[in-house]
Amino acid sequence: MKLKTIKTFALAALVVVGVSSCEDMLRVESKTYMFDYQNTLDDPTDTVYSVLGIINKLQKIADRTVILGEIRGDLVKVSDHASQDLRDLYDYDFASLKSTNKYDKPVDFYAVINNCNFFLAHADTSLIREQRSVMKGEYITVLCYRAWAYLQLAQIYGEVPYKPIDSDPAASGEKKNIKDLAKLLLQDFKDEYVSYYDRYMPDYGSIGGGTLGDGSSAASHNTKNMFIPIRLILGDLCLWAEDYAHAALYYHDFLAGDNRAYTTGIGSVTWLTWDFLYAGYDDYTANTFSNNACLAWIPMEGDEYSGTTSELPEIFNSIVKNDYWYQLTRSQAITAISVRQNYCYHAKLNAQNRYTWPAYMPNKKDAPELLLRGDLRQYVVLESTYRDSYEENDRNSSMYGTEIQTLNKINSEKIWLYRKDVVYLRLAEALNRCGLPQTAFAILKEGLCKETIDSLSQVEKTRATNIDGVDISAVYDFPTGRFQKAQIGWTNDYVVSGGSQVTVYVAEWMSGNTMGIHSHGSGDASYDTLYTIGKKLAQMAAAGELKGDAHLDSIRAVEEYLIDEMAMETCYEGYRFGDLMRIAMHRGKDIGGDFENEFLAKRVATRETASLDDNTDYYQNKDNALYTKLLGGDPKKMNKAWFLVLPDEK
In which element (H, E) is residue 296 found? Predict the structure, then answer.
């Protein structure tokens, strides 16, 4: 964004609410608290000023939520040129973090929470104009911001002080774990807020644009995307509170309720003409990270003159500013998850256009590059090339990196909070723990739409009518639409690397509006006979991981698929540690505890050593010291070693 544009926008926004002038909306200089506590917010000016002031505070924690969500997970590793602050986090020695570590600043999260609390305690929602509350929409917006900030804080620090809305900002508050915190936050949302927010979500028009100091164009932001959809934050709160039925309903109703139709779409990465030498067809990245697919974000400034900028490009990308030395890159674990997938395609065999007998990429190990062996998303999401030439003044200089890494998920002026595929994955997570593993797995394999729902077992559909006393059968209300492929010809026998001769098919996409998330990078998952709940159960049986309860084992099997799909689909976006932590929490009840620490510990401990071989135990080589630390003294209790340490505990 551009400072001058924000000022112009602020003036225009205040005209809408009946005020003639104001100062710059996003430049609020106080460190944690920006209001006089004795003031009352009883003027429309206050709503715009306050909400945009809170967004200013959100900018300070936006990058941090991404970095701390990834660096404690299993999908990234530090490079030789990573900052010491990043290296200290990666080493998991959180108790010894220096006070100067730029990512260990809980005060910035409480700056958001304190300002939200002030607004919520003092906003006059009884002020009516044109037969509706002037401030109620902003009130709900701020409730959502507050809940989101608390959930991020608890994922980073474990147990954190909770301050009721009307509390003194200086009060410390009683510490709550994330499950109890989610339950408390849910109490602040009235049922009527959902329908009200659908109608009256704030909309201040577009901000941003203009020209930056270097002559480039600044991004433009639709202000409605700066606000968190209420159903999504309520779904997250319910998921953390282990109220799976209501979580599923909130996610479903956002995706498909009230004439909405957020389908998965058909964007994917595919082999070019199926000859397994050119993975050149990518309509995944453009569709997946477009403004239409991304539902909410924190806007960042385009240059430092205008305000808070994102440092994610300096961390993940090779750019001039960092002398082409990136700091974080893909781990062995995400590489292993990717290459272990089976890329599936199929042929049309009869006049009824029915597709049968799936085929798979032959001789995976003969692929020209490692990342082309299985799922193709890694190949296009985090690209790596080498500089062909140097500028004259850095020729052959060891000061500059030669590997050019580019993370195509980065938009330096928009830090994503939600996108539609993330919501689908969380819907699958909730449905699975509702006891509906077939339904959850359909989201991964085929896409949840009328045609696939019709094929689910009646037993599962009947179960949905009573999930702990809640009827969630409404989750089966999804629009019609299947994704399909059509054969348009044959190739000749083709010699792939290594000399193996195979027959492959030429194919193209047909029309459709939904497909399984797994098909984004692994071919046509709906016809993949190796990608089934039964196959995963067989693997678990061979590893001695079954619990002896067929229904529970199916749920856990789907979770194994789900956590890998989350890795391939949402890597580097900041969700990973929370995903691992949350599913470990879901599994706690399976073993008579609060958490199944083993689930998280073994994954993070193999971030650098995971096996790439399909036929070898993925976890056979662990960092034993890290594994022991993350498992904890009681492997059924939330482990403090997972979290950074609050100042009063150091």
Answer: strand 294-299
